């Protein structure tokens, strides 16, 4: 896993072998950020990375100059890895929170411009994530939710659905809070 672009470009993330994660592939991550390059102004973004795992997506956003990123995961080893990596990179605008992402959505009161969620593909409540995000008030007006999921999920009927992108076996559904 590597940082594709920006301040930390080329730096590698070396997570321990025993982390219970399925990181977004470099191919899919690069394609996703190529799309985002035409959609967002990184400098002004406040980003939330749910089910962060290794923190790869959060670090990619930070590398591209976002104002602030928050990484949330329930696994203690993932949290420790992210903190150690942030320290090694000299990152000072990353909040790392150990929490179940569903609990976080119910209790957090901050507002984000972009929320990325990469839950386990076999998570039972994955189809509820878009509605939970939009009902939580965490996404700013005009904000963007990106949900990574397997091909077995379809979100086109969701009120906030914007577009779908597929890169190999990785699927991204984009949702937008409109005025």
Describe the 3D structure.
With 179 residues, the protein is α/β, with parallel strands linked by helices. It has a single domain (42-176), classed as Vaccinia Virus protein VP39 (Rossmann fold). 27% of the residues lie in helices and 26% in strands. It is built from five helices and seven strands. The chain has helices spanning 26-36, 56-63, 76-89, 101-107, 129-136; strands at 46-50, 68-73, 94-98, 112-117, 139-149, 161-167, 170-176. Strands 3-2-1-4-5-7-6 form a seven-stranded mixed sheet, sandwiched between helices. Helix 3 (76-89) links the parallel strand 2 and strand 3. Helix 4 packs parallel to helix 5 (129-136). The longest helix is centred in the middle third of the chain and has 14 residues, at 76-89. 37% of the residues are buried. The mean pLDDT is 93.
Structure at a glance:
The protein has 179 residues and is of the alpha/beta class. The chain is built from 5 helices and 7 strands; from the N terminus they run αβαβαβαβαβββ.
